[in-house]
Amino acid sequence: MDLQRRPRCVALVTPVWPANRAPNGIATYTSYMVPAFRNEGVHPVLLAWDAGETKKDRETPVVEDDLVDISQFKPGRTLLGRASAKAQRILANAGLGDPRFSMLAGAVGSALAKFPIEVIEIEEAFGVAGRIAKLGRVPVVTRLHGPWFLNGKTAHEPVDSAFHQRVRRERQSIALADAVTSPSQDVLDRTREFYGLPLDEARVIPCPIETRADDRLWNLADADPDRILFAGRFDLHKGGDLMIEAFVRLARSRPSLVLDFVGPDRGLIDSSGRLVHLAEFLQSRVPDAEIARRIVVHGQKRIDEIDEFRRRALVTVVPSRYETFGYTAVEALRLGCPVVAAAAGGLGEIVRDGETGLCFRPGD
After folding, report:
1. Could you give the angle at which helices 303-312 and 327-334 cross, rounded to 10 degrees?
2. Which of 100, 113, 139, 116 minimizes the C-alpha distance to 15?
3. What is residue 345's DSSP assignment?
4. How would you list the strands of the sheet with 9-16, edge to edge?
5. Confidence category of residue 324, pLDDT binned at 50, 70, 90
6. Percent of residues, the chain, with pLDDT higher than 90
7. CB 3.0-4.6 Å disulfide test: which of 139, 300, 302, 306 passes with 1?
8. Do 96 and 76 touch, CB atoms closer than 8 A?
9. Which of 7, 231, 20 is CA-nearest to residue 116?
């Protein structure tokens, strides 16, 4: 692949589309890349694992024919397909195959038949990028959105044979790629060290974000001095448990303090390996009913709704245990919000302690 020549047609693989249907950093990244490519005269084609059902939900204009729904290539729609799917599940369990690969391969083949795609960008997850690269049909850029050797351990996932298998497959995706990009220097350095790969052609390309002149910025006079915001999933990765524990300490001496907890409840793995959801966590860790009442759980919200929470809060806290980039922090900084963040991975490159925000040790 000629890395010096600008391609005219680029394919991007995203977990979900449109991006506002789920809190996903890759989908957010893709939503900014699509119009940016178009502005540069490059034709973007999307391959989405979950493409939604209606055109009206799409916040970024995409021609219908420019979107390939990977789920349509799921085996099992015919008798032969069901037999193939069963065989693939057996192979996957034995470490010999993965239905994700056959689905993505089918979607890539369909896209290549319709569009003059010159390069395809795929995240490293599950190693499917490496399998597509081995087919040799189109140059592959592997983007380090969240290597499992980092994110899996951060989320306290069991380090079992499945864990190690995924880590090995992701190494192959990175090693076989025609090019590698990373959203932060930290994740690129850790990937090089962990896998022992030089990755001489790898580049750090931070995730984009749109700023608009008509954006209403955070203003101290409009902010509630007794309001803190956490926007993220309730899981170990995003540190929702840390936010609650810290708030309880503050709330004891600040009787008017309120925490807006915005985001989906994925649950977290406790020390016994059991999945604990938010309501149970609050019941066990916040016995004081008066303090519990001041933790307002809002669930999943759209980006524009979260922005209103950001403008209202005195401070936005980002307590992630690790981030390859950290869109939550960038989205807050875009509005001029005061930010307190863990110096975890890419977050430490975005929020500079004492300059663009305040930082603390990850997990504290």
Report:
1. 60
2. 100
3. T
4. 67-69, 43-50, 9-16, 119-123, 140-143, 179-182, 203-204
5. very high
6. 77
7. 139
8. no
9. 7
Half-sphere exposure of residue 189: CA atoms within 13 angstroms, side-chain side? 5
* Phi-psi label, residue 110: left if phi above 0, alpha if psi -120 to 50, beta otherwise: alpha
The pair of three-digit structure tokens given for residue 56, joined into one six-digit string: 């009206």
Q: Which amino acid is at 221?
A: A
pLDDT digits over 231-247, tens only? 999 999 999 999 999 99
Would you say residue 41 has pLDDT above 90?
A: yes
H/E segment holding residue 73: none
Q: Tokens at residue 197, please?
A: 């790969």
Average pLDDT estimate for 185-196: 97
Output the CA–CA distances (angstroms, integers) from residue 296 to 1, 40, 69, 282, in the order listed.
51, 43, 37, 11
- Say which amino acid occupies 254: R
Residue 4's identity, in one-letter code, is Q
Q: Which two tokens stand for residue 101?
A: 């690969």
Determine the average pLDDT of the residues in 164-188. 96
Token digits of residue 216:
């209403």
Distances (CA, A) of 260 to 56, 239, 309, 313: 30, 14, 8, 8
97: Cα within 13 Å, side-chain hemisphere = 12
pTM of the full structure: 0.86
CA angle, corner 282, sides to 279 and 286, nearest 5? Answer: 160
- DSSP-assigned states of every residue in 302-340: -HHHHHHHHHHEEEEEE--S--SS-HHHHHHHHTT--EE
